[in-house]
Design goal:
Layout (H helix, E strand, L loop, with lengths): L35 E8 L4 H14 L2 E6 L3 H9 L6 E4 L5 H9 L4 E10 L1 E4 L8 E2 L1 H8 L21 E5 L4 H11 L10 E3 L2 H10 L3 E5 L1 H6 L5 E2 L1 E3 L4 E2 L3 H6 L6 E9 H4 L2 H12 L1 H8 L6 H16 L2
Parallel strand pairs: 1-2, 1-3, 6-11, 7-8, 7-9
Antiparallel strand pairs: 3-13, 4-13, 5-9, 5-10, 11-12
Length: 316
C-alpha cells in the first residue's frame, strides 16, 4: 500500500528540531516545524490501518513527507526489516530471538516503540445463532495441532450438525503466533487445514460467506466489519467478555489482549523525518487510535512510550 505525498517540503534544516525529547505530560505540542523525506514501513496486517492513518495525518502536516506502508505480516515485515529494506517494521508481537539474530548479523540495530493495544477478535458467521461465548479450552479443541473438529456438534454436543469452516492468520502473521501461543500453549502448535491469509479482509469475506464459519483477527477489522460478522465473547475464567476499548485497557479481556509495536532501525531514526514520524505517532496516538478504531495506550503505557522515545533521542 502506498501513500502519496501532498506537496513540497519546508527547509530540511528544521528537521533537527524534532530531536527534542517528548514532554512527560499530555500537554506536549502535536505539531512542529515541517520535515520532508521518504519513510518505508512493512509488517503486520493488524497494525497496517493504524500506521496508514498516522501516515496520512503526518503527510498532511508535512507536505514533503512520504510514508509508504506495506502489509506482509509481522514475520514478513521483520524479514525485510532485517535485510535493511525498510525503515520501520509494524509488529503485532515482540520480535523473536531468531529475527533479532538476523538483524544483528546484518548489523541493523533497532528501537522498539509501543504504539497501541489490540483485542484479538474471534468471529463467526452471522447465522451461527447457537453460541455467544466460547472458552479458551474450546478454542484449543478447535484450533490445536492435529485437531479433527470440523462440525459444530463436536465443539459441544448441544450444538447443531453444521460444518465448521475455519479462517485464520497465515503463518507469517504475528496474529497467528499470538493466537496459537495463547490458545494452544505453544508456538506453531496449530492445525494447518484452514483457510489462511495475512490479509484480514480475505478472512472477513471468508467468514461472512460460509454459514458455519469461524475466524480470528485484530479488533479494528471486526469493528470495521461488525455489520457483516458476529463477535464471540471469551470466557476469562470468571465471566464472558467481549473485546472493547474498556475491556482491553482494563485487562479483563483474557487471554487475547496484546500490545502492538513499531520497530525503527537506529540508522533510520537518526533521520529527522523518521524521528518526526515516531514523535508524531506518540504525541497523537489516542486520536490516531480513535480514527483507525484501535485501542489506545493506557496512561501508564503512554508514559512508557514517551520514555522510550526520549531514550532513543538521547542515545543517538
Amino acid at each position: 500500500m502506498r501513500k502519496l505525498p501532498y506537496g513540497t517540503a519546508v527547509l530540511l534544516a528544521v528537521a533537527a528540531v524534532f530531536a527534542l525529547a517528548l514532554a512527560a505530560t499530555a500537554t506536549a505540542k502535536t505539531s512542529g516545524p515541517q520535515v520532508s523525506g521518504r519513510i518505508t514501513a512493512d509488517g503486520s496486517s493488524t497494525l497496517g490501518p493504524y500506521t496508514t492513518a498516522a501516515a496520512e495525518r503526518f503527510e498532511r502536516a508535512n507536505r514533503g513527507a512520504q510514508v509508504v506502508v506495506g502489509i506482509s505480516g509481522t514475520g514478513g515485515g521483520f524479514e525485510r526489516f532485517c535485510k535493511g529494506e525498510t525503515d520501520l517494521a509494524n509488529a503485532s508481537r515482540p520480535i523473536k530471538l531468531t529475527e533479532a539474530k538476523k538483524c544483528q548479523d546484518k548489523g541493523i540495530p533497532y528501537i522498539q516503540f509501543l504504539v497501541a493495544n489490540d483485542g484479538l477478535s474471534v468471529v463467526v458467521n452471522k447465522n451461527v445463532t447457537w453460541i455467544n461465548c466460547i472458552t479458551p479450552a474450546e478454542l484449543k479443541k478447535i484450533w490445536d495441532k492435529g485437531s479433527k473438529v470440523d462440525n459444530w456438534n463436536q465443539v459441544r454436543p448441544s450444538f447443531p450438525d453444521v460444518p465448521l469452516k475455519l479462517f485464520g492468520a497465515g503463518t507469517d502473521s504475528g496474529t497467528f503466533d499470538f493466537f496459537t501461543e495463547k490458545i494452544n500453549g505453544k508456538a506453531k502448535q496449530s492445525r494447518s487445514d484452514y483457510t489462511a491469509s495475512e490479509d484480514d479482509n480475505v478472512l472477513v469475506r471468508g467468514v461472512e460467506g460460509e454459514r458455519g464459519a469461524m475466524g480470528y483477527f485484530g479488533y479494528s477489522y471486526y469493528v470495521e466489519n461488525k455489520s457483516r460478522l458476529k463477535l464471540l465473547r471469551i470466557h476469562n475464567g470468571t465471566s464472558c467478555v467481549a473485546p472493547s476499548i474498556a475491556s482491553v485497557q482494563a485487562g479483563t479481556y483474557k487471554p487475547l489482549s496484546r500490545p502492538l509495536f513499531i520497530y525503527a532501525k537506529k540508522a533510520s531514526f537518526n533521520r529527522g523525518v523518521v524521528r518526526a514520524f515516531i514523535r508524531y505517532i506518540i504525541l497523537n496516538e489516542r486520536s490516531i487510535a480513535r480514527t483507525a478504531r484501535f485501542v489506545a495506550l493506557t496512561t501508564r503505557q503512554l508514559a512508557k512510550a514517551k520514555r522510550q522515545y526520549n531514550a532513543a533521542v538521547n542515545n543517538r
